[in-house]
Amino acid sequence: MKSTRYLVAVPAALALALAGCGGSTGTSGAGGDTGSDTGSGDTAGYSTDDSNCADEEVFCIGLVTDTGNVDDKSFNQSAHEGAEAAATELEGVYKYIETQDAKDYAANMAQFTDNSYDAIVTVGFLMTEATVAAAEENPETKFIGVDQGYPEGTELTNLTGLIFPEDQAGYAAGFLAGLMTETDKLGQVLGQEIPPVQKFAKGFENGAKAANDAVSVQTVYHPAGDNAFNDPVWGAGEARKQLAQDVDVVFGAGGNTGNGALQEVAKADGAGESVYCIGVDTDQWDTVPQAQPCLITSAMKLITKGVTDTLMTAESGEFEGVQTVGEAGIAPYHDFEDTIPDDVKSQVEEIVAQLQDGSLETGVTL
Amino acid sequence: MSDTRTEEAPPPSDGGPREPEAPKDRAGLLAYLIGHQSGVVIVVALVIALLIGAALIRYQGVNPWYAYEVLLRGALVNDGALTRTLQKTAPLVLTGLAVVLPLRVGLFNIGAQGQLQLGAIFGAWVAYVAGGAGFLGAVLGMLVGIVFGSVVGLLVGVLKAYRGVHEVISTIMLNYIVAGVTFWLVVGPLQGESSRTSGIPQTESIPEAARLDTVAGVPVGFAVAVVLAAVCWWVLGRTTFGFRFNTVGANKEAARYAGVPINRVVVLSMLAGAGLAGLAGALEALGTLHRFEPAIVGSLGFDGITIALLARANPLATIPAAFLVGILRTGAAGLQFQTGIAPEIVDLLLALILLMVSIPVLGKWLFRSRADKQSVATTSWGN
């Protein structure tokens, strides 16, 4: 065909195709660091040469992300760092695959099982089903599903879902909030009313009351089940309402909805001086930089540590069950290191330690 | 986009041999090459893109030839790899066609992404509900996918034909609207029972019986896509109906003068293209994920644009073009596993190939004065 009347379309197509790709995949500089066909990650303290994985002596760890990169400053990155630490500790082999397409989960896990890897970490609840299926097919390989809760009746000894006590993270954050508030009024802007979110919320409330019994907590869940975790406008609106009612610490927990609340507080008068916000899940200082003016900490799941510990367990023997409960805590204070009084810091530190060693109960029941 | 100039080239005759235009004294290979220059340009573009890719892979400290070997092995040779590649190729052929059909009329469909998504969610849901009917459920799911994809196309076509709304605007905006609507559906009314407590956005899993499987290593969806590509080629090249498409695309005013019902052709081209994209979505739901979740779309719709342009709007050529994209996408994970190269290299290669094929520079450089006239031409006439 000689005529090329669709040529006009080309620049637009290029722009779109590139934009489409860029949006979904982002950047990854990490891939090159993990070695080449012959290389071994000498600097990293673990090897990427997996030719000996069938050997009992060599412990090989694989990691599959859920359509994200290992530098996503969120779950994937935390799990990746945890796996790296474990591989270094065990002087083992570690490699990862960044999933590009949700339909490739099984194929990506197969890359590792085909090469006799000992343990495979899969990140995120989206991979729950694929992980169970792969564990059933490969009884010799141990699977660790980060943030995955398996359905009742799952009885596999080579599989464990790493879940985190949201109530403890909430409790620690609430305790800090209770000590920081001047107005004795706290607010929570939450996503859908489902168990993990409720645990964060009730933990926060109990923690706040434990620190300061004069405190009152305003709690609001997203009303609809539709875009509950992706409604920053609603989140911002609720945060604004709470601020208008003298709330001075807002806990935003609910994906983008919560992020909307954090960003709204960051824009408010006195943000970072008399008004604060607290993030959730990971250190949101990194994930939501717009919230930095008010973000004193985040109620955090300690994914990195959880992954490292669970991999150690996988190497040495049996998992503790189909679910493994990791630890929770709070994120670093970053720029608020000096704003928060030392006695507050030491009290919070103590509470976190007590929660983690089990001597303190959050009192949260669902 | 908006600068539209008319072109004087004759209506495209796809597939058929190109007119021999080499002087008589230049018989043999050179004449053949000049006669088939659009094919030659694509091959040269592929080679150049792979060479640039090789340099970048080298830069990451990996032997490029080894990397390409790994890529091809991972996509074609390894156990079950070819099936997976064909599985990925199937929706790409269809989204490619979804762009090709309107392109023949001079319309640029950027909405395959959204059309696919709507087809996927309703296809998945109907196949789940009608799962008891077995294979019939799967067929029903596919039909519903086509219907819902077409609904989006119908909207675009009608707006274009009767209100003059630029289809690039309407399709791209509808992508967002459809994404919002399907997300609302998948965490609302159509969310699977078991996913409600955990809040995972996915529909109920389609029963075993109503899923599309592979027959002798060939996914059913791939067979469907190939047949449809052939049908499109036949209709466009061999029927009055197809002739009308091409006439409108070549010169709308002449077509109107000749009595072609332009509005109807416009609406039909969008309807058919979008229906194919919707079918691609349903096939993905039925054949690979066995349910709908928002990630089902990936970049299939946008890849369709790449494929249509690589195929030079020839329906049959979408098959090899989609296969190429399928190979790259399937091999990418193994590439990262074996060599540590970031899988994004594949996107880069695709972009390079598209760039080379699309810009007229390469043809001019290769064929000098004998290059085909690259008249910048009419698309999106009714602005």
Give a short overview.
Chain A has 366 residues and is of the alpha/beta class. In chain A, 40% of the residues lie in helices and 17% in strands.
Topology, element by element:
The complex is a heterodimer of chains A (366) and B (383).
Chain A: H1 9-25, E1 60-64, H2 75-90, E2 93-97, H3 105-114, E3 119-123, H4 128-137, E4 142-146, E5 159-163, H5 166-180, E6 185-190, H6 195-211, E7 216-221, H7 232-244, E8 249-253, H8 255-267, E9 276-281, H9 284-287, E10 295-301, H10 303-316, E11 323-325, E12 328-330, H11 342-357
Parallel strand pairs in A: 1-2, 1-3, 3-4, 4-5, 5-11, 6-7, 6-8, 8-9, 9-10
Antiparallel strand pairs in A: 10-12
Chain B: H1 29-35, H2 37-59, H3 64-77, H4 81-104, H5 112-129, H6 135-163, H7 167-187, H8 193-196, E1 214-215, E2 218-219, H9 220-238, H10 240-250, H11 252-257, H12 262-289, H13 300-310, H14 318-339, H15 345-358, H16 361-367
Antiparallel strand pairs in B: 1-2
Helix pairs in contact in B: 2-3, 2-15, 2-16, 3-4, 3-14, 4-9, 4-12, 4-13, 4-14, 5-6, 5-7, 5-12, 5-13, 6-7, 6-12, 9-10, 13-14, 14-15
